[in-house]
Amino acid sequence: MKFLISLHINPAAMATLSDEEKAAIGAGHGTFIEALKKSGELITTQALVDPSQAAVVSVRNGQPVVTDGPFLESKEYLGGFYLIDCENKERAIELASQIPDTAIEGLGVEVRQVMFAEGQLEA
pTM, whole model, 2 decimals? Predict the structure, then answer.
């Protein structure tokens, strides 16, 4: 079964962390990635730039309209994700609980099963 573990960042929460705490988060992700590779459960992981660098695309009257910045005004934004392939939801939650962000108030980690990929509904 495939699961998306999404990492949600609150800039205000990140601003309260020391450089050492931020470095520890990065190191924790490195350790987590290596463990997922070793277990064969990692499909891919990606980190995303700050939403201020995003472009929002819509089509109006047949013409693309592009605006800068995030689509929604919110305190949190999607900072990255892990796409994993593991036995079941319980295992996905077990893995997600190892991500350092889960121990920091204001950062969120969400687990969602993949329903559709490459033209096929997942079982």
Answer: 0.84
